[in-house]
Amino acid sequence: MQQILITGGAGYIGSHTAVALVNAGYEPIIVDNFSNSNQDVLAGLEKILGKKVKHYEGDCNDREFMHGVFKENSLKGVIHFAASKAVGESTQIPLTYYSNNINSLIVLLETMKTFGVKDIVFSSSCTVYGQPDELPVKESTPRKDAESPYGNTKKICEDILTDHVKSGAAARVVALRYFNPIGAHPSSLIGELPLGVPANLVPFVTQTGAGIREKITVFGDDYDTPDGTCIRDYIHVMDLADAHVKSIQYLENQQDTFFDLFNVGTGNGNSVMEVVKVFEKVSGKTLNYEIGPRRSGDIEKVWANTDKVSKVLGWTPQFGLEEALRDAWNWQVSLEK
Ligand code: NAD
Ligand code: WQD
């Protein structure tokens, strides 16, 4: 069985990708420092998979630790999720974000080179597009100046990867630009675990539905969109997980020095109010919401052109907004039990 290292594998997207990898016949190996996750996810994975997933607690910036992980295993490839991801926090502690997100990639690429591991799938983000001039946004659409230090780390990491490949290094790289991942594994045994008050829409919605938050504020209804609220491309985390498996398989057939990147979204845009309404439908709850002012730095509307990912990787999403919100809600309910 081929081994795939998942850095940040105890986190939200990494844990779902571990499931998808096992289902596709790979052995995932998790590395995580549990800075934004906890050990419970490993128990959830064991229940879903009926077996333990090999894991190491440690920091991807720790070269010696990473060498130990590579030495002990015969890795076929790496999926690099580990990063700090809170946009607001990144404006408060930018150096921590630059250090964690950029340094960990460099240590990883150097370790891969030392051990002759070529394949890497990198977690990028639609944040690199800012407010694009054309919609739906294509991979070839120019990137904009980053809105936050977090967003800038994603741009810089993409540049590091392209420069590494341009140098002729024996590296095969896929960068995936995720749109807005939501939902949870349908078993409700793993899901998103935001620390403190959620910054993202869907966890805030589900926590409000569960009565943990009194109400949700819709950040602005005066945008240039059909109902005035912002539009995003919400993608089920299991579909996103699958795109990583397809990327790993795609890399297996490429020449030694290779870079490609893909949008991973559904191709559909939904407004904040549509999310609220669909949530009410799938949960049977009436959501207590109010319209508030715009949130500074918000993008008005963005959704993906998915032609490339569907043509080249043969990937198409299996779930829609209803299923994603249903699974997000079931996960929230399971946390209360
Ligand atoms: P997450 O915080 O749930 O998972 C990241 C995991 O990495 C956490 O378990 C954390 O403990 C771990 N980690 C962080 N720094 C580490 C380090 N130095 N060494 C070892 N482990 C470390 O985040 P997520 O939502 O699963 O996101 C995964 C990746 O996808 C991140 O790179 C993120 O920037 C990117 N991304 C996320 C979204 C989103 O909306 N969730 C969108 C676009 C891109
Ligand atoms: C979605 C919509 C809000 C909360 C962020 C990062 C981005 C990417 C994904 C990683 C927006 C509205 C939200 C609330 C609201 N992450 N909203 N009330 O802004 O697309 O992107 O996560 O790369 O980099 O910036 O996602 O979930 O925060 O917001 O009205 O309480 O919901 O204004 O329109 P966003 P989000």
UniProtKB/TrEMBL annotation:
The gene is galE. Pathway: Carbohydrate metabolism; galactose metabolism. Belongs to the NAD(P)-dependent epimerase/dehydratase family. This is UDP-glucose 4-epimerase. It catalyses: UDP-alpha-D-glucose = UDP-alpha-D-galactose. The keyword Ribosomal protein does not apply. Its EC number is 5.1.3.2. GO terms for biological process: galactose metabolic process.
